[in-house]
Amino acid sequence: METAPAKTLQKRQVIFLAILLFLWETGSEEIRYSMPEETESGSLVANLAKDLDLRVGELATRGARIHYKGNKQLLQLDITTGNLLLYEKLDREVLCRATDPCILHFQLLLENPVQIIQADLQLTDINDHSPEFLEREMLLKIPESVQTGTVFPLKIAQDFDIGNNTVQNYTISPNSHFHVVTHHRGDGRKYPELVLDKALDREKQPELSLTLTALDGGAPPRSGTTTVRIEVVDINDNAPEFLQSVYEVQIPENSPLNSLVVAVSARDLDAGTYGKVAYALFQGDEVTQPFVIDEITGEISLKRALDFEATRFYNVEIAATDGGGLSGKCTVAIEVVDVNDNAPELTMSRLISSVPENSPETVVAVFSVSDPDSGENGKMVSTIQNDLPFLLKPTFKNFYSLVTERPLDREERAGYNITITVTDMGTPRLKTEHNITVLVSDVNDNAPAFTQTSYTLWVRENNSPALHIGSVSATDTDAGANAQVTYSLLPPPDPLLPLASLVSINPDNGHLFALTSLDYEALRAFEFHVGATDRGSPALSSQALVRVLVADANDNTPFVLYPLQNASAPCTELVPRAAEPGYLVTKVVAVDGDAGQNAWLSYQLLKATEPGLFGVWAHNGEVRTARLLSERDAPKQRLVVLVKDNGEPPLSASVTLHVLLVDGFSQPYLPAPEAEAAAAVPADPLTVYLVVALASVSSLFLFSVLVFVAVRLCRRGGAASAGRCPVAEGHFPGHLVDVSGMGTLSQSYQYEVGLTGSTGTGEFKCLKPILPTFPLQGTVREIKENSTVRSSFLFN
After folding, report:
1. Which of 84, 121, 124, 76 is nearest to 103 (CA)?
2. Which of 101, 250, 427, 483 is the most buried (most CB within 10 A)?
3. Domain Cadherin spans what residues (predicted)?
């Protein structure tokens, strides 16, 4: 059972074969033109529109253009007239060298639909080169004993033209000893031989100088000359002879320099100097031949790199000359063997850099491939990556089209880097890679999407106007203007909600701002929808829910419900002196308008006439006795209770309690010390001092008497809060009373304790509280305390 990839590959191969056969049948006609070389640029070659039966305007509408291997522009097409013109002068010898016929292949590319027409231009040779001898002078050493009719080979002249325009005949200047005979070589070229007509006599004429002329067959003919200098030497009756008249050798084109090609050998039956043979390249010099021969050993080696694509065959003539001047020659036929040393070449003819998304099959690029190697080394295969939605379709010969396999999605992938790999079939295989980038242009097919379906924002009450309370964010996977998002507030579901006066949104970045100061006690939460719209055409949009929660702030001071502080007469609590410890005296009741921990209230005793006599429960505000009452306790007690919430920073209020100690509930009610003092003397000593000072400015003595009286009254009445008591000189070091139950002394309950110096019984004479100064009305400053509140009392 075949796998899915194998079925897909077979399907693609069938499609490629069908398209290739169709295009071959419809576009396989070839057009051939002929033109002499060296024709002036701009000359008319032919009218393609007429030859192809096309209308003149059709070439322009179908985007006709000429393609030549290597993208070198040799021809130009006038699409308005259909004329094919020469772009520059064409030199047959430069373009084709010795190849005959010289044919230039080019293609006519048409679009809409894509059509490729093969055309050839044959360059005919003109006689624009004269024959040239490679040497200005030839030296022949001929023994005088040479018989008439002896033939002496001469070096040929080179003519870059071909056919009849190359060398056709050789002549020698008139003389009585020699004439020239012209012969044909196997490769079609003609070579001269000097024939002796009359025996030489060294004593009469030791040297001759003749002029050899080479004539080509052009009209008019061209010629070239060289000098043949003949030295007549003594008798040497045996010429060197090669073991083979022709040597055939094959050599790879990538052979290293100085490598051995072949070794030739000749022998001479003469002895001495006449029997020593020297080898030399008979035809060609160091410039034209890539070979060199050792004159002693006859080994032919490589002196210049070979190129199969430039020259495939070499015919090298080797001359062996003995010491007497006689020579023999042989031919070495060298065939250059091709190796895979040329990577394939890719020529891009058409390229589209951007393809709209959601488009059907689109032609992205048209290109051609070539390889100058031969055989399997010149066969090529073109491929692209398998994971791309593109296909390579062969069109005409070595032309391919790169097309999309399916509609593209820019949001899935915005661009493709396509590598076209062209690999030949040689060993080792060589390849060429060409990278192209295809971008997918955007279409507005995606609506903005919020990062969350709903947003919850917290705002602390009493915020400043225009406060940034949060942001919403939406993204659009499109690009450009299609991805630019604008935010807006949508009408709220509750028509009574004044949304426009509460919040605003930045349309560019989605930042939300509170326009007014919010009050938790008035509005605890509200919600609305936010819309996000892109700038595409048509525009797409989406929406998200925003819920705003107002967080409570500690902006309400605790309010004491009982006892009332604004009553005309203070409330006095009666406590029997026989009360046990823990006796409930009263309960302070307070409330806080805030919520949460801002409304959690705690109570503590801030001031007391008799420290340690009463305690306040931190959680419920109950005031209870802490110990048994004694006769020494003052009958009138004044307590200041601090009520504090748990906010940050904490807010507090204080309440003053008046407690009257009675022997029984039948004892008549005694007015509070503050009421008694209000009828006679104000409770605050400073106020007394100020009133007395204003009334008795003229009498300092009277002022001192009043102070003395006030101190005495303080000692007798036990009203420590009405003035400061004198303290004995000695203090208990570090003996401080803790009534907070925290285990450590807090600032509110640290006292200095003094003893009378006379009795020595250790009784307290006066207690002097060390207290911070608190305002009795308004907000009490924060008092540092431990967060753990115990419900029990600890007294010393």
Report:
1. 121
2. 483
3. 27-133, 134-242, 243-346, 347-450, 451-560, 575-675
